[in-house]
């Protein structure tokens, strides 16, 4: 049963392909810890170092930053997977319309 028309199916397919490509690339860049995407990392707070504990603070800061990069990368890949589902649905709708026309 066709739910959406052929033009909408084509439009959604194109948008889905674009979203998949963009999110896979962004996920790869987050996974590679690209410095250009540092503004897109959620903010977090770590208590200021006291005395000689700067090295420990520095280590905790970078551990949290790496975890935030990894979290953003997995979020991008999950969203890309949802776009794959959207693409499959759009293509199935397009197939149903093509089959009905012939």
UniProtKB/TrEMBL annotation:
PANTHER family: RIBONUCLEASE KAPPA. This is Uncharacterized protein. The keyword Transmembrane applies. The keyword Mitochondrion does not apply. It is found in: Membrane. The chain crosses the membrane at residues 12-32, 72-96. Coiled coil: none annotated. It comes from Strigamia maritima.
